[in-house]
Design a protein that fits this description.
Order of helices and strands: EEEHEEHHE
Strand content: 25-35%
Low-confidence stretches: none
Number of strands: 6
CATH topology of the largest domain: GMP Synthetase, Chain A, domain 3
Structural class: alpha+beta
Strand order of the largest sheet: 1-2-3
Number of helices: 3
Number of domains: 2
Helix content: 25-40%
Largest sheet: 3 strands, antiparallel
């Protein structure tokens, strides 16, 4: 994939629109999604997409996936990620704990957003199988 270019344009006030290589656009403003919120959403979405792709290849039958991302921010003038925790809730037919643990370890290894953000601070995870 090499180099990715995102072009961000100031529209008005505090509104910026970013044009993505996929052709989609993201608009952020002082009153809309904040950049750190989008960063944590990207982590959760990337982990989810990676998990689903791996589950399909490993023939792990998932019916539903929820991921909570809790980000801890450093105090100071500039808030940066200090740490993050992903909580996976997985539903499926006869999910095996060992299978799920392997799936999550592989997700951690192959998710590019995880791989990028882990250099900023530790990222860990927990999981529940078929929670009530």
């Amino acid at each position: 994939m090499g180099v990715q270019t995102v072009t961000t344009n100031w529209k008005e006030g505090t509104v910026f629109e970013s044009s993505l290589p996929s052709g989609a656009a993201i608009t952020m403003s002082g009153s809309g999604p904040k950049p750190l919120e989008v960063m944590f959403a990207s982590l959760g979405s990337c982990a989810g997409l990676t998990l689903l792709s791996l589950a399909s290849k490993l023939r792990i039958p998932l019916r539903r996936v929820e991921i909570d991302v809790r980000g801890e921010l450093a105090e100071g003038k500039v808030q940066v990620m200090k740490a993050a925790h992903l909580k996976f809730r997985l539903w499926g037919d006869a999910l095996d704990r060992g299978q799920v643990e392997r799936l999550l370890q592989m997700t951690e290894k192959y998710c590019p957003v995880y791989g990028t953000l882990v250099s900023a601070g530790p990222i860990d995870y927990s999981y529940e199988i078929d929670p009530a």
